[in-house]
Amino acid sequence: MSNSASIDQNTFKILIADDNRLQRSVLEAHLKTAGYEVVSAENGREALEIFRKGYFPIVMTDWVMPEMNGLDLCRAIRKDDSGRYTFIIMLTSLDSKNDIIVGLDAGADEYLVKPVNQAELTARLKSARRILDLEMSQQRYIETIKSLSLVDPVTGVFCRRYMDDRIQQEIKRAYRYERPLSVILIGINLFEEVVVKHGHYAGDVIAKKCAESLIESVRKDVDWIARYGQDTFAAVLPETGLAEAMIVAKRLRIRIASMVLELHDMDVKVSASFGVSGFAANQEKLGFTADILLETADRNLCIAREEGGNTIKGVQMG
Q1: 76: closest CA among 100, 45, 102, 99?
Q2: How do residues 88-119 score in pLDDT, each as one tens digit?
């Protein structure tokens, strides 16, 4: 099964490791009745050999086994560097809190106390499949980003193509949960003059340093930065109203204004202008689009530049 393949129960393989033949047979019967393909091993070492020869989305392992126990099997699977996640269910007669913690710490995702209850087994497998589906969706998303080269090669932030697609999703999410969303457009002042005077390499250095400063100044894994134009960046701030976005813009302005870059043995100061727009999503006020959000921020950026630069203009919509 490839990384990007969806999980199909009819071809979904589960690896069982249990040295008790009777319990192993009962578990096999339950899983096959549910439509899963099952491969079994009598101990952890045999299971690991089988695991390394193919991909098993789920591994169910007994804790106490000869040659290699369930904990060691968990640890060995977690060291696997195939790039595909495996959901591990520990089978054990040990149900104390400390034992459970030890199992989870070794790499297990879930545990089942023997003898296994079929209804509980079904519930655990549904949970496992949801998590594996999410993992595979994430892998597909990462692969898409890489294949479409959606990262700006100079600055390392997302490119305009990625931004145009993702901001649509951010707006849908804002409406779904009725949460605010704001955008800051950051225009580097006198960028073209610097390029004319010092060359395109100097422009790349300034853009890269500004991008690094922006990344360091926003929330990791929540906010994101994209290159909007040659001299312009966009900071997209989910879960953020205009008032909070204005505070972020002030922080960004101060950080960029404090930068001094050495170009051709000369110190070059950098500053930027900021256009901010935001809206509070409400199901009763549908209609805000990415174009409206960005055009409003762009107008504010133009006003900030016309007023001399190194300033901030913002407006709340709706």
Answers
A1: 45
A2: 999 887 666 777 788 888 889 888 888 888 88
Give every CB contact of residue 277 below 8 A, 6+ residues apart in sequence: 182, 183, 242, 293, 294, 296, 297, 300, 314, 315, 316, 317
Select from 147, 169, 192 the last residue of a domain. Answer: 147
Pair 16, 112: CB distance under 8 Å: no
CB-based contacts of 48: which residues, under 8 Å, 6+ apart? 68, 73, 76, 77
Q: What pairs with residue 272 in β-bridges?
A: 188
Report helix, strand and coil shares of the chain as percent, to nearest 5.
Answer: 45, 25, 30
* Same domain? 169 vs 298: yes
Q: Find the helix or strand (DSSP H, E) in which 41 lies.
A: strand 37-41
Length of the chain: 318
> Angle formed by the axes of helices 118-147 and 21-33, to 10°?
70
Distance, CA of 109 to CA of 119 (rounded, Å): 18
Judgement on whether residues 135 and 190 belong to the same structural domain of the protein: no
- Would you state the structure tokens that stand for residue 82, as one six-digit string? 């195939």
Between 191-198 and 200-217, two packed helices, what is the crossing angle to 10 degrees?
A: 140
pLDDT for 199 equals 85
Helix spans in 148-270 (H): 160-177, 191-198, 200-217, 242-257
Residues 302 and 230 in one domain: yes
Does the structure show a pLDDT above 60 at 2? no
